[in-house]
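Researcher: We are triaging several targets before committing to wet-lab work. For this one, the compound of interest is magnesium ion. I'm pasting the protein sequence and the ligand SMILES. What I need is the predicted three-dimensional arrangement of the protein with the ligand bound, expressed as structure tokens, so it can go straight into our comparison scripts without reformatting.
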Amino acid sequence: MFDALSEKLQSALSDVRARGTLTEDDVAKAMREIRLALLEADVNFKVVKSFTQTVKERCLGADVLGRLNPGQQVVKIVSEELTALMGGSSAGLPFAPRPPTVILMAGLQGSGKTTATAKLARHLKSEHGSSVGLAACDVYRPAAVDQLMKVGAQADAEVYEQGTDRDPVDIARWALERAKQDGKDVLIVDTSGRLHVDEKLMAELVAIRKAVRPTSVLLVVDAMTGQDAVNVAEQFSQAVAFDGVVMSKLDGDARGGAALSVKAVTGKPILFASTGEKLDQFERFHPDRMAQRILGMGDVLSFIEKAEAQFGEDEAKELERKLKRNEFTFDDFLSQLKMMRRMGPLQSLMGMIPGLAGSDLQNVKVDEREIDRIEAIVLSMTALERRRPDLIKGSRRLRIARGSGTSVQQVNQLVKQFAQMQKLMKQMGRGKMPDLQALMRQGR
Ligand SMILES: Nc1nc2c(ncn2[C@@H]2O[C@H](COP(=O)(O)OP(=O)(O)O)[C@@H](O)[C@H]2O)c(=O)[nH]1
Ligand SMILES: [Mg+2]
């Protein structure tokens, strides 16, 4: 996600980051590079202009230049302004005072509405314990109702459908009645889309909106279409006011232009991020965390949150404490591996780990068999060895290799990798990225 942008911004900032003192020229040069990076990322040019202007003014205005560690100040300012650009604090989805809360999904055909409908249902169920019904109002594509039934079942949400012969406005009205009768907390209305914004599409949406009076209208926007996505969002906002954006297909978007421009152009925040075809690849969008991720500050909070969802909160708190204090042993490593496996594809988690983003380690392909081997090696260590990896030498290595059915070389390699990891964590703790913790507090 946003790899290209992330790389360019980090390289634009790497110079100032490293400097002990900064001149106005240094700042100007960094701003030029940031401007280019954003334009290449397909961010709306007006947005780029005002963004770099603000950042520059803040960098030169607040006595950044004279300060100790001015580079860190600049990085902090960029991070704060990126956060503001994407909507500042993360916005939530309001619930209706009297259920059901009705959410109307809008967007072009293929933008990811039906997928997002089911993902949101799953999300609301798991986060809020909501019982959710889905209204099948896309009657133009024959397979649309079947698709919603299929993903709806996966999300454990009841689908209210009447085939494809009735008027979508009638179906929406009927579905709302059903949802009320069934005591649903939430009704999500999936609608049809067209390839382009046209009058018929807008008229139908307006009619459905009138019929069900939604608590929120969400616009699903395909991040992979970049600037086009933002133009579409702008056209929608003129015809059918929406309250927030679901940014879909972020997993395929290396550039990030849509995500960075849509709030500034439409005035509406991104509420959710969809990052894959699977139903659990969906999360609330947090501008502050996204900014930190783009700038290679990792994303501790999302990581911990994901861990919390899988584990008890206590376990996750403990992990957070250890990550911060650098009391990290092979035992923790082992339980982390287990946890990660429960959390889903390892690769997708790598970018969230601070210190890993942008490092060589992030590019390591995660092979599940490799994880099996690592687990076997750690399990063959004694309790003492797990706490004191520095003891693992000579005959101990051979014993561990035999015990785990691996080679001494493989044991060596793991011990070395582990030492490298500890070093990374120590660097974090020592404040190689000192703003991170401040930013995290701010994000709470
Ligand atoms: N990679 C990826 N694919 C997605 C995502 N969301 C939806 N899709 C795919 O995009 C296609 C269109 O999605 P769909 O929900 O049917 O769009 P709709 O026409 O707006 O209802 C489907 O093949 C989905 O599996 C996402 O976040 N990431
Ligand atoms: Mg659909």
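Researcher: Any quick observations?
Model: The chain has three domains: 3-85, 101-294, 300-443.
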